[in-house]
Amino acid sequence: xxxxxxxxxxxxxxxxxxxxxxxxxxxxxxxxxxxxxxxxxxxxxxxxxxxxxxxxxxxxxxxxxxxxxxxxxxxxxxxxxxxxxxxxxxxxxxxxxxxxxxxxxxxxxxxxxxxxxxxxxxxxxxxxxxxxxxxxxxxxxxxxxxxxx
Length: 149
Fold this sequence. Notes:
The relative contact order is 0.16. The chain has helices at 6-12, 15-27, 98-121, 132-143, and strands spanning 2-4, 36-40, 48-56, 61-69, 78-86, 92-97. By secondary structure, the chain is α+β, with helices and mostly antiparallel strands. It is 38% helix and 28% strand. The protein has a 6-stranded mixed beta sheet with strand order 1-6-5-4-3-2.
């Protein structure tokens, strides 16, 4: 089984590749049941949560994002990993940093329709980002596309 940390994910998934893969995935027949959520008691602190978010394509791959949310743990209360399995035999293939993967998926999915529209219209456009991390991702995505000016 291979392991991909945040830096490896960033270096191996340039934004145009992320957007192309997400565009294809958003059009694919993917099974993604409602996430499961489990309360985790923490003595002397607010309860935490364990979230399980599976998705798969029949005969292809199975992925599960596992997220823990512990509001009493500061400064970092959310942690995540993503486990990828072979969809034909169930063997684990990879363990990925779930926080980086989520950040890239969120920004990339938002950019995906814009990239298609921009390619068709050759128009310029702006980005909106709700926080500093999203703003940084937005700048990196925008920089990876050639200027139309």
